[in-house]
Design a protein that fits this description.
The complex is a heterodimer of chains A (254) and B (361).
Chain A: E1 2-13, E2 16-27, E3 31-35, H1 42-49, E4 57-62, E5 65-66, H2 72-77, E6 80-82, H3 95-101, H4 111-116, H5 119-139, H6 154-167, E7 172-176, H7 184-199, E8 203-207, H8 211-217, E9 220-225, E10 228-233, H9 235-240, H10 242-249
Parallel strand pairs in A: 3-8, 3-9, 6-7, 7-8
Antiparallel strand pairs in A: 1-2, 1-4, 4-5, 9-10
Helix pairs in contact in A: 3-5, 3-6, 5-6, 6-7
Chain B: H1 2-26, H2 43-58, H3 62-87, H4 95-112, H5 117-139, H6 144-164, H7 166-169, E1 175-176, E2 182-183, E3 186-187, H8 191-213, H9 216-226, H10 228-233, H11 238-264, E4 266-267, H12 274-287, H13 293-309, H14 316-330, H15 335-360
Helix pairs in contact in B: 1-15, 2-8, 3-8, 3-11, 3-12, 3-13, 4-5, 4-6, 4-11, 5-11, 9-11, 12-13
Classes of the chains: A alpha/beta (254), B mainly alpha (361).
Chain lengths: 254, 361
């Protein structure tokens, strides 16, 4: 069964069709790549799936349940985590608190019982801290768990954002251009982490401008061009597709 | 020769570092802004507690006691507002109204219905919180300037209601003869007793806030302040978080208002205007946002400043304004955080300078 099913969604911005009747599925436990030239509507599709914007027509289903008109936090509660194109770490908190923020929904605590620091709050906070440190350990950020998140270099902030998404224990993580602005070494580290996430049974949907990385790690690739879905399939097949070459390379000889 | 210069440096270093180090023991922790909010109390915090407990006994001037009582009440208000303003990053220019609601609730319940002050104290917080919930539902959807204007409007509406419902609130004259705060027959009738009452309540609320900001709600507030998109993406209900923090901060204002009514033994609309709302915001901003000592320091500082400047009569307001502007220019992050950071920076500077000089030798 597909985890996400996008059914013929259309989105317009002032007459410009960012997405034109796009349909696609993301299978559980796979890594799906979404590529396309600038302005193809990749990020728009992500905003629609995560609920930050509403489609003009069409529907989106998660695990068979319609989520088209839900709020972003409700969609997150159903098991969809995401990262952002421009990194959105919470700079007024420490690194470990960023991860713990990802556990918000899993920690059950009232406002007043938190203020009184009742025994069960203490227990759950300690557990959360321990788990957050484990996640940081896996990301290789444990050495800086106490430093302000805003002081990390960009590559580490991107990892931290993925860590925060992972801390939600989601079924699906949407990664919006995780490799943009990274050095080749950082990119390699990132691919490794993404591979680990897949092993943990998390489905990944990756928008990426950097074609090489997606072709390497994705099980299946979708190509968008000017709001239209032009190709879909395993990386090797898509790479050879003439329409993809035409659209993506825009006349560059291959 | 070399030995001698080295020794001179050491001596001079010691001379510079000693007072700085002593000062750094006194001022709030520079880390408080960013460090992982741990549960352990630092030794410094116990010193503060000791000073707060012993100071009025050593300095037994009633005027000082009264000022500290006022500063404590303002500190409770500012502490509550700092949860909303400093942590959740939302502005409220109507907090004097919640303070007023607290004061009037206590005034009405104790004078008309002869309710014990302790019960009225809790009722005040509940009333203020309920008002905040009703107001917050519609207006917390607004952001930035619009939220500031909406809360400001609420404050003005509150004043109009208080002035016009004469049968309930006594109109512009207000309510007199509110009894002293008393717990099980023990009446807080002197300034010294009131001092311990207020600072005791402040301590309790401080501990409550300290726990709150290191819980999931503290993290949710901080997340909402930085990026609502990021907060939503991890499943934080932004609207609900804002309302919860707003209600909590109004409850603090309700407590403060109730204590104010008991200590002043009157409640009249003069005290709860826009000027007072901005004063509370000023205390939080001057003290430093995003830490809990800031608002308390800000409250003490402004209360004293107003008292000291009162003797210059017509010059007091211009001087007050200039001092505020200077403080904001030189301590843009607030005295509570900036002073500590500056001092630690200086200590680091001298230590590094010594190393540099030694390296040269």
């Amino acid at each position: 069964m597909s985890l996400v099913f996008v059914d013929a969604i259309t989105k317009e911005y002032g007459g410009v069709r960012a997405l034109d009747r796009v349909s696609l599925e993301v299978e559980k436990g796979t890594i799906k790549g979404l590529i396309g030239p600038n302005g193809a509507g990749k990020s728009t599709l992500f905003h629609l799936i995560s609920g930050m914007e509403r489609p003009d027509s069409g529907k989106i289903y998660l695990k068979g349940k319609e989520i088209t008109s839900l709020e972003p936090d409700e969609i997150a509660a159903l098991g969809v985590a995401r990262t952002f194109q421009t990194v959105q770490t919470l700079g007024n908190m420490t690194v470990v608190e960023n991860i713990m923020t990802g556990m918000h929904l899993r920690l059950k605590a009232g406002l007043i019982s938190s203020g009184l620091w009742l025994p069960w709050i203490k227990r759950s906070e300690n557990e959360a801290l321990k788990e957050a440190k484990e996640i940081l350990d896996r990301l290789g950020l444990l050495g800086r768990w106490k430093s302000p998140a805003s002081q990390l270099p960009l590559g580490k902030q991107k990892l931290l954002e993925i860590g925060r998404a992972f801390a939600m224990k989601p079924d699906l993580i949407l990664l919006d251009e995780p490799a943009s602005g990274l050095t080749p070494a950082e990119m390699e580290q990132l691919s490794e982490r993404i591979g680990q996430l897949k092993k943990d049974g998390i489905t990944l949907f990756i928008v990426e401008h950097h074609m090489g990385m997606v072709m390497e790690i994705a099980d299946e690739v979708v190509v968008l061009d000017q709001g239209k879905l032009i190709a879909q399939g395993p990386p090797d097949v898509v790479r050879g597709d003439s329409r993809v070459i035409q659209a993506y390379m825009k006349g560059k000889p291959r | 020769m070399v030995m001698k210069t080295e020794k001179e440096f050491r001596k001079r270093d010691f001379f510079y570092l000693m007072p700085l180090w002593l000062l750094s023991l006194i001022v709030p922790d520079a880390d408080d802004l960013y460090s992982y909010r741990s549960k352990e109390f630092k030794r410094k915090e116990l010193y503060y507690l000791g000073v707060v407990l012993i100071l009025p006994l050593i300095w037994s001037d009633p005027h000082f006691h009264h000022l500290m009582v006022l500063a404590g009440i303002y500190a409770i208000l500012a502490l509550g507002l700092s949860l909303f303003l400093g942590y959740a990053g939302q502005i409220s220019l109507g907090h004097a109204a919640f303070f007023g609601i607290g004061a009037y609730t206590t005034a009405i319940l104790t004078t008309r219905y002869a309710m014990p002050t302790v019960l009225a104290f809790w009722a005040s917080a509940v009333t203020a919180a309920a008002a905040a919930f009703l107001i917050g539902k519609p207006i917390l959807k607004l952001k930035g300037y619009f939220l500031a204007l909406a809360t400001l409007g609420f404050g003005e509406i509150f004043l109009v209601i208080v002035r016009e419902t004469r049968t309930l609130t006594g109109g512009v004259i207000g309510i007199f003869g509110i009894p002293w705060f008393s717990i099980a027959g023990f009446s807080f009738g002197t300034y010294l007793k009131q001092y311990y009452l207020i600072w005791g309540v402040l301590l309790g609320l401080f501990l409550f806030s300290k726990n709150l900001v290191r819980s999931k709600w503290g993290r949710a507030s901080l997340a909402v302040a930085v990026s609502e998109d990021a907060a939503k993406s991890v499943g934080i209900d932004v609207a609900q978080t804002k309302i919860k923090v707003f209600v909590m901060s109004a409850a603090f204002a309700g407590f403060a208002g109730s204590l104010f009514a008991c200590i002043m033994s009157t409640a009249n609309p003069e005290a709860f205007g826009l000027g007072f709302s901005t004063l509370i915001v000023m205390m939080v901003i001057l003290g430093g946002m995003g830490n809990l000592y800031g608002p308390i320091l800000g409250a003490i500082l402004l209360t004293y400043l107003m008292d000291v400047l009162a003797r210059y009569q017509e010059w007091s307001l211009p001087i007050y304004g200039v001092i505020l502007i200077l403080l904001l220019i030189f301590f843009p992050e607030g005295i509570g955080t900036r002073l500590g950071i500056r001092l630690i920076y200086l200590i680091g500077y001298w230590a590094k300078k010594r190393k540099r000089d030694e390296g040269k030798l």
